[in-house]
Amino acid sequence: MTSTHAxxxxxxxxWHLDPLHSSLIFVAxxxxxxxxxxxxxxxxxxxxxxxxxxxxxxxxxxxxTSVNTGVNAxxxxxxxxxxxxxxxxxxxxxxxxxxxxxxxxxSFRLHGDLEIHGKQVPVSLSSEWVGDAPDLGSPxxxxxxxxxxxxxxxLSDFGVGDGGSTPWGxxxxxxxVDIVLEVRLQNQDPAPFLKQIGHTS
Length: 201
Hints:
This protein is mostly beta strands. The chain is 7% helix and 49% strand. It is built from two helices and eleven strands. Strands 1-4-5-7-8-9-10-11 form an eight-stranded antiparallel barrel. β4 and β5 (57-63) form a beta hairpin. The longest helix is centred in the middle third of the chain and has 8 residues, at 72-79. The two termini are 30 Å apart.
């Protein structure tokens, strides 16, 4: 299933984000000195791979209500108007604007517009193709490719609040957030299976 038109990655066509085997992780400063890691559990998206890989496109939509830091009260606060305001802005979106191959044959930079809290900001992700393998449950018709990507954003660029100040200085949530993505793309649309097992927004 690996393309012969390039040294790495999936072949031309449409590939689908597999949310069950992907991790959409963020790491933020919390209460000035702490660090908190969270994930988004609901997402969908497609990658359209072109014959020329640099002309490929990516479109991802993340359900902002699926934020999870492991603490229900904190997650509810993150969904509130103080932060993500998911009632007004239920989705986080990424749409690619370009792909730039780097010197390493399996690495590239993915450029695009990230929309959080209703505001679009250009971002660039350092990305890497990790490998490919058949699907464990249906190896005869489903194949997956694995990617890692990282970037860093500023919440203030998106108009996301910081929760205010703490009595000991600093803000409740720091402005800088690290994004770490471990993504599996597959050739089959996962939507029917996700609906079957109840993994829907």
